[in-house]
Amino acid sequence: MKMYFFIFLLFFYQCTIATEIIASETATRKGKSLLVDSKCSKCHTLNRVFLHARTEEEWRHVIDEMMSKIPGWISPEETKQIYIEIITNRQERVQEITEGREDYADNRLLFLDRCTMCHPVNRILKENKSSEEWEETVERMRSEAGEYISKEDASRIAAFLSKRSDVLTEDIGSRLFVTKCLVCHPPGNKILIERHNRAEWEKIVKERQQFAKNATPRVRIGGADVALIVELLVKTQGPEPDRRVP
Predict the structure, then answer these.
(1) For 79-85, which contacts have Cβ atoms below 8 Å and span 24 or more sequence positions?
(2) Closest CA to 116 of 223, 20, 181
(3) Domain 105-167, CATH among 1.10.760, 1.20.120, 1.25.40, 1.10.3470
(4) Amino acid 4: pLDDT
(5) What is the mean pLDDT of residues 127-142?
(6) Is 9 in contact with 236 (CB distance < 8 Å)?
(7) pLDDT mean over 116-131
(8) Is-contact 5 171, C-beta < 8 A?
(9) Helices H / strands E in the chain, number of each
(10) If we measure between CA atoms, which residue out of 48, 44, 47 comes closest to residue 24?
């Protein structure tokens, strides 16, 4: 239960990281205004745009595809400018992104930083793959992310994801948390990094139960659901252990 929950609880933490990424991108550009920044950031973080390794022909195809997805947002003339900006500035941007990356001792945080740059965390973690399949998947992502994901990063991320898969089908509390809680909380919510004791979590979850009853009838949280969700949160996000040396 503890293992699988951490996968999906990262959904909101992902949003926090995404916010920090965008802020970092803005600061890094030091006032350099590009059309790719204003147009492509509507749907993607710019780090994702620049990190993905593509040939020039692939970039042309992707930009044309984006123009067709949101008619009127990118004009044919703008696609040409965006293409030139990406080709001209990509190497510099990738260098900035790579130099600014953080190193994490915790594989969970490493996974969040490296993988949610391009993918929603719940899209990744709903997959139930073998260790070999995760290794292949992460290595493929590493080849597309350039230097942002190192060989060591890939090995640690694959190990983390493999460990999560081992308990995927058994974690009832985590499934409830995903289907009952994560569907309503807004991006940037801090619930995934909060720590509370049992009484505090019970109070929080029961308040959410009442809120769901009144505001979101389609998400009903029963009494048994509350107990399982609280138990999960106590195990995974209980009070921080006291690591002080006596």
Answers:
(1) 81/35, 82/35, 82/36, 82/39, 82/40, 83/59, 85/34, 85/35, 85/36
(2) 20
(3) 1.10.760
(4) 45
(5) 87
(6) yes
(7) 72
(8) yes
(9) 12, 0
(10) 47
**pLDDT for residue 29:** 44
What single letter denotes the amino acid at residue 52? H
**Whole-number Å distance between alpha carbons of 66 and 52:** 15
Residue 138: both structure tokens together:
């992460």
Domain layout of the chain by residue ranges:
36-99, 105-167
Cα(236)–Cα(1) distance, integer angstroms? 9
Is 90 exceeded by the pLDDT of residue 202? yes
In this structure, how many other beta carbons lie within 10 angstroms of the beta carbon of residue 105? Answer: 7
Is the pLDDT assigned to residue 54 strictly greater than 50? Answer: yes
| pTM value > 0.70 | no
Q: What is the mean pLDDT of residues 95-117?
A: 81
How far is the C-alpha of 24 from the C-alpha of 28, rounded, in Å? 6
Query: Would the pLDDT of 22 be above 60?
Result: no
